[in-house]
Amino acid sequence: MTRNWVKTVGAGITAAIFIGIAAFQNQSTNAAPRPDLNPIAHWVFDAEGVTGNKVADRVGKLTGTLLGAPQLVTTSPTARLELANPVDGVMLQERVTPTAAFLPKDALSAVAWVRIDQPTEWGGIIGCFQDNKPAGYGFVLGYNKTTFQFGLASQGASSGNGKITYLIGQAKYEPGKWYHVAGVYDGKQMRLYVNGQLDGTNNEQSGPVLYAKAAPFVIGRYRDENEDFPLQGAIKEVMLCSHAIEPELIAAHFEADKPLAQVPSTIQPGPKFVVEPYLQYATRTTMTVMWETETPCTAVVEYGLKYPPDQSVKVEKADVMGEVQLSNLEPGTKYIYRVVCTDADGNKLEGKPLTFMTAVDTTDAYSFTVIGDTQRNPVVTARVAKLMWERRPNFVIHCGDVVDDGTAKWQWTGDLFKPCSELFGRVPVYPCIGNHEKNNPQYYKYFSLPKPEYYYSFKYGNAEFFVLDTNTRRDLTEKGEQYQWLDKALAASEAKWKFCYHHHPPYSSDDDDFGNSWKGPTKSGDLRVRTLVKLYEKYKVDMVFNGHIHVYERTWPIRDGKVDEKNGVIYVTSGGGGATLENFAPTPAFFKQEGRVDYHFCYITIHQGTFNFKAFDQEGRLFDQFALKKE
Predict the structure, then answer these.
(1) 8 Å CB contact between 470 and 502
(2) CB 298 within 8 A of CB 317
(3) Alpha-carbon Rg for the chain in angstroms
(4) Which of 245, 388, 443, 524 is 20 to 30 A from 363 via CA?
(5) Residues 64-89, buried b or exposed e (16+ Cβ, 10 A)?
(6) Distance separating alpha carbons of residues 524 and 182, to the nearest angstrom
(7) What is the 8-class DSSP label of residue 503?
(8) Contacts of 356 (CB under 8 A, 6+ apart)
(9) Given the DSSP bridges, would you call strands 190-194 and 197-202 parallel, antiparallel or unpaired?
(10) Is pTM beyond 0.85 here?
């Protein structure tokens, strides 16, 4: 998604607005008398305001519903709602139309007490908006990685498509500290306040607020129809007004709970994981452990058959990226490991104990899961990753487009590794590269794969997997490097089961990626990639996985351009890891056997000559399965 936004900061603001950390005893703050801001909705996260999974609106009827499992805390320093999980938040209404009586129209003010524990590129405190190229509608009070921000679209700034301006604050917030934040719009000017002080203005918007035909209204998330990013931290209260609050009233409202802003940060000093420890490239006797920290650290990877581990490997060179290959391990064996990092000041970061299992023997049973196109939807990705972890696979294969924009570091850390931390911390992941990675160096930084990395193979149990880069920069013809490598690698393989995977589909029933099927003919797949089919059929590859099309599709066994149930190759599109879902052509292709438009993953179990395949949707419901047998 591309935003139509303008970064602006207040001019002439020179005074620092943050109160330094002062001595503060471990007791609740004493509130001063509050001014009446005359809100149209007011949510307070205390024992009176939260009952069960409902959050009361103290002045109206806009009751909220808790999302996920946020924790209501009523102890020092203030009653609050702790948002710690990717699915946590408060849903006010799922689909709000412009005529909703509770929406501010000619002017608005959104006021909140909030604590941001983990900065993100896009974060929301309260919002009812849609921000999708080229259109932008509604409003959102939120934050980015360093400052607070206030986004708004108005009728006066619209050229017919809508336009959101993001007013970016000047003062940087400190993670783990409480802040009083307010976004104010009077029909002519946007203003952002932090801790009672003006932090920025913008005059690009004018007239009534311009809302989308339908948009979610949420607290604690930055959410529109194709994005959903959680706030990680806590919220004390949120207030919404249909008028522009005067500056002196904003300041007075802050002063009422000013001691809260003096509470020291909940974030402890020392190194932090940017990416928690995760696993790469398992063999029968080795396992690679990787991680990333905010600041350069030395490290020790402890491992063994029990806890505390009795073996270790040291990383003497300080770096933000860590990578260690554990060797001389026992095949098919469970190990416990932990990463301990130390920064230049001697502060330690102790990772939690995790587990892994080395690769099994050729006669043993094993399983793996398949996912593709996670892109930029951490909530769905977290949901699917949790379901995959519940199946306890031996490893995961990813069919590409692991992120939406390979150049954006925060998408790697926030959209991929964070929601998959439990899964990737215990199960190695083997990716292929998609078009959205843009061949960016970060792909090669975050994954440790056999050279040249954009194509490689690996063995597991009695199967061999061949991984390819099918992006347009690669030559897939018979003269191409990958084609010639695959020809030799398949010819040399003695594995009982052979699987290939890459991002783009040789066969697809998609409705518009390979020609608009609603108005004319379609190529029914990527013809560049179909050159590889000759090798798949020549060497009797059992199955080919791909992503790119954001659906689930399983073909009949195909050989020589037609269905051949005895000798054909099965192609599975698994593009349901989080990217915006797509659709099928209005008429079925000759090869289409099963299809579903939903977020999903595939689960495969193998024991010697028995292959079982299952596909589960985002709710964990089985929707497709079949089995293969070999002598």
Answers:
(1) yes
(2) yes
(3) 27
(4) 388
(5) bebbbebebeeeebbbbbbbebbbbb
(6) 52
(7) S
(8) 279, 282, 287, 334, 335, 337, 426, 427, 428
(9) antiparallel
(10) no
